[in-house]
Task: structure prediction
Amino acid sequence: MAKNTLTIIDNRTGKQYEIPVEDDTIRAIDLRQIKVSEQDFGLMAYDPAFTNTASCRSKITYIDGDKGILRYRGYPIEELAEKSTYLETAYLIVKGELPDSKHLQAWRNNITIHTMVHENIKKFMEGFRYDAHPMGILVSTVGALSTFYPEAKNIFDLETRRLETRRLIGKMPTIAAYAYRLSRGLPYVYPDNELSYTGNFLSMLFRMTESKYKPNPVLERALDVLFILHADHEQNCSTNAMRSVGSSQVDPYSATAAAVAALYGPLHGGANEQVVRMLEEIGSVKRVPEIIKQVKAGERLLMGFGHRIYKSYDPRAKIVKRVAYEVFDVTGRNPLIDIAVELERIALQDDYFVSRKLYPNVDFYSGIIYQAMGFPTRMFPVLFAIPRTSGWISHWAEMVRDPEQKIARPRQIYIGENMRHWVPIEQRSEPVMREDAVSDSI
Ligand code: CMC
Result:
């Protein structure tokens, strides 16, 4: 019978090693025994950007990037998007099973009693400039929550973890909505806990003088579906930040602030904002061939295209595209959709995109929906951060309980100078400007 091992011959020494293979993976630490001499540190694996390194074992989300499969706790994303709600999906992600109606009601209550934020949070947020980016506000305000809940540092206490999970999922929409109201010079709207999770969020964003805000049910459902699609995506950049920062045993608010910061970047959650900016800049379907040419010449990226894991159509993008047309029935058609569809059509026929397996990702159509719903472009990454909080906190809790996890601390291959001795300043010549200098100015 075939053995579940890998045999390695070190051609430097002629020695042979047998390394166990488990789950189609070898443990990088098993390479350390491969040495040229006793003093040698041992072999390491070099993997910038973790393109082929598993950093954990996880039971939360399964992705098959070649087949375009995404499942939360075993449930296909398509079924959840059609039948579930965001809060129910968040329960599933956090707790591992779908709730019965009694547990769902209790979960809903437990989240909604935490939607309010301390009044000082409002004052804190008022310290930002009028034109502050809402993601910048979110990074800082989520981090600031740790100062309001210092007990959150008891990360090994189950009850504390439960409480901080509810608080984080409950308060994210409130902070996000306040960031928006602040940027518009509008008064804050307190949470309305009679509304659904997304209905309340829409109320906190858009309520004006009416005594009770009534969300449009189609838009409320569309946002809920988008929240379901964004709830988790296994070890992406922000989840990795959450786990990595959390591995220092800092409180979950500080770790979540790091995750929000990672999401802010244009290659991650900031991509939905960049897609709309790109489509607005393209301006008309006629310019699409010219843009594709620029992309192929390496002059720009086609934002909303490509994915580290999906090498076929992102299953979330298919659902988002469908939801876009449902939203347009209410809001009127966003003309950017025509440019997006044409970009997709041409790109999917072009060898540059086909050979690199570049398909639309979740961000390609989501911004167009958000814009049609009246969200300013700068709010788009925030709309990603709110639902992803349930994923981040679940990964954090999984990491905290995993006996194999330790403080995340990668190795490096040192390529700098060998040892040299300090020289008195009057004996030094003018320094040469090095290619690797941070800046060529003083
Ligand atoms: N437009 C044009 N070319 C691209 C694109 C793109 N959007 N994405 C990848 N490529 C090319 C890339 O230049 C490279 O070509 P070559 O082999 O000739 O050097 C090849 O495709 C492989 O790309 P890569 O950069 O090695 O792929 P990666 O796995 O490191 O990057 C990515 C994944 C998502 C960062 C990248 O595809 C990208 O920058 N896309 C645009 C930004 C975006 O839409 N991000 C949202 C990702 S999905 C939601 C999320 O995670 O937040």
User: Anything to note?
Assistant: The chain has three domains: 5-46, 75-269+379-401, 271-372. The mean pLDDT is 95.
